[in-house]
């Protein structure tokens, strides 16, 4: 091996992906990441998937959206914008930031040293800063604006549907942390997709999520079980389902069955 080969490597970013810094929530800085299709948008704009925990999931969703949209007739995934908001490690422990921003109430089952209860402020940040910034940067179809979250962010998705159903048109909540809090009844709708992993047994996650989704109050929600997936793997396994849910065109009928 050439000993100087390591110096030949340079940073690389896939085409069409951008990032900028937003400041909010007590002066904390966030990374806002954007991936948009090439070419002219449809007359109503592109469908848009808003991804929480962008530091974990942006590359996965942006890459999969680009690949699967090339064969829309086979995959059921159309071209779309992927917008992701990421917590930054230089702004404090990421897990503490997540617990603060994604929860409406403190949790009685967790160490009180971890913050909680900042979700209302985080929702306002999405509404007043994140979404307007995206709309100023790319043409978005607000009838196909989807919020995705996993784990605590999945709980945030359900609580946002509960308290601000006008903020997004569609919802994808994977492995929501119902052990932290179980949201009150929400109207069941095909616009809500809930999923979890087949192997999610900790804190009775799978049983809680299946029971919650199957209840009459959410009878219209889609449920997806990620085969052979644990808590961490579930959102990755379900990426194609989430992208189909976010991008399907109502004028063409329902999202393809999987």
Can you characterise this structure?
The protein is α/β, with parallel strands linked by helices. It has helices at residues 54-68, 72-75, 94-101, 119-137, 152-163, 205-214, 234-237, 239-247; strands spanning 17-24, 28-35, 46-51, 81-87, 140-150, 170-174, 192-197, 222-226. An eight-stranded mixed sheet has the order 1-2-4-3-5-6-7-8, sandwiched between helices. The protein is globular and about 50 Å long. The protein contains eight helices and eight strands, in the order E-E-E-H-H-E-H-H-E-H-E-E-H-E-H-H. The mean pLDDT is 90. It is 31% helix and 22% strand. Strand 7 (192-197), helix 6 and strand 8 form a beta-alpha-beta unit.
Number of strands: 8
Terminus-to-terminus distance: 47 Å
Question: What low-confidence regions span 5 or more consecutive residues with pLDDT below 50?
Answer: none
Radius of gyration: 18 Å
**Percentage of residues in helical conformation:** 25-40%
Mean pLDDT: 90
Major beta sheet summary: 8 strands, mixed
Strand/helix succession: EEEHHEHHEHEEHEHH
Widest sheet: strand ordering: 1-2-4-3-5-6-7-8
Global shape: globular
User: Which strand-content bin applies to the residues?
Assistant: 15-25%
Structural class of the secondary structure composition?
Answer: alpha/beta
Number of contiguous helices:
8
């Amino acid at each position: 091996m050439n000993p100087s080969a390591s110096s030949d490597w340079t940073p690389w970013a896939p085409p069409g992906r951008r990032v900028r810094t937003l400041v909010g929530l007590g002066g904390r800085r966030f990374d806002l990441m954007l991936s948009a299709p090439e070419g002219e948008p449809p007359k109503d704009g592109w469908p848009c998937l808003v991804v929480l925990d962008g530091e974990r999931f942006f590359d996965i969703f942006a890459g999969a959206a680009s690949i699967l949209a090339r064969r829309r007739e086979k995959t059921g995934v159309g071209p779309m914008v992927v917008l992701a908001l990421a917590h930054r490690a230089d702004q404090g422990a990421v897990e503490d930031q997540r617990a603060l921003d994604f929860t409406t109430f403190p949790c009685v089952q967790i160490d009180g040293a971890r913050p909680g209860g900042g979700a209302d402020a985080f929702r306002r940040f999405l509404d007043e800063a994140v979404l307007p910034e995206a709309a100023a940067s790319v043409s978005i179809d607000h009838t196909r604006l989807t919020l995705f979250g996993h784990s605590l962010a999945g709980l945030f998705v359900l609580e946002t549907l509960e308290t601000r159903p006008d903020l997004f048109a569609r919802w994808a909540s994977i492995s929501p942390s119902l052990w932290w809090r179980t949201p009150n009844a929400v109207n069941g709708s095909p616009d809500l997709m809930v999923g979890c992993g087949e192997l999610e047994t900790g804190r009775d996650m799978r049983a809680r999520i299946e029971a919650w989704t199957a209840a009459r109050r959410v009878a219209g929600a889609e449920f997806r079980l990620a085969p052979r997936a644990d808590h961490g793997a579930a959102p990755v396994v379900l990426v194609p389902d989430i992208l189909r849910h976010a991008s399907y065109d109502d004028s063409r009928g329902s999202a393809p069955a999987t």
